[in-house]
Amino acid sequence: MGLDYIRDPAEIYRLSFETVEAEADLAGMSEAMRRIAVRLVHACGMVDVLDDLAYSPGAAEAGLEALRNHCAVYCDVEMVKAGIIERNLPGAARLVCMLNDRRAGHSGRVEGNTRSAAAVDYWDELEGSVCVIGNAPTALFRLLERMDEGAGTPALIVGIPVGFIGAVESKAELARDPRGAQFITVHGRRGGSAMASSVVNALAFLATGRS
Description:
This protein has helices spanning 9-23, 31-44, 59-68, 78-83, 102-111, 115-120, 137-148, 167-176, 193-207; strands spanning 53-55, 72-75, 94-96, 130-133, 156-159, 182-186. By secondary structure, it is α/β, with parallel strands linked by helices. It has a six-stranded mixed β-sheet, sandwiched between helices. The longest helix is centred in the first third of the chain and has 15 residues, at 9-23.
């Protein structure tokens, strides 16, 4: 005899999101942000992550419009890119991760910065893009620096890097001054690729009319 557990994937999916909606405080959120919040909780299994969720007014809607306009979606690491369900993105929206580009490794060494930060220099269409950072605080810092340098303004920055060094500070800087972009972040040390990609997945579902 096998162990007693739910085996039907559709039922697991249904019950998971039903549980999140029952336990999470989603009051005051727009429908789009509510969908993001539910998927964010589902990605990490922690309802209290919403206590640290911060976002600008209209952030979800700006990301949704950008995807519908077939924007570039820039990812700081391959794990974030892999976590985004590409087939759900509308039309010609494209996923880009430059971390393994040889130029990033070289320029990172030359400039004395991380490869993740150097890769941001090769995000070539920042204006109107969606930038998704789930791993490297240095990538978020570098993105903000590039915006200060006039490289363009993303439609939405999903800044949820994880870690003990720089994560808290980079997210605080994003929330303090998003340089004209809309933003979504989770304050504190928590974050990661699954959480960051879940935000884009929620937007992609909405953009294409999926549930």
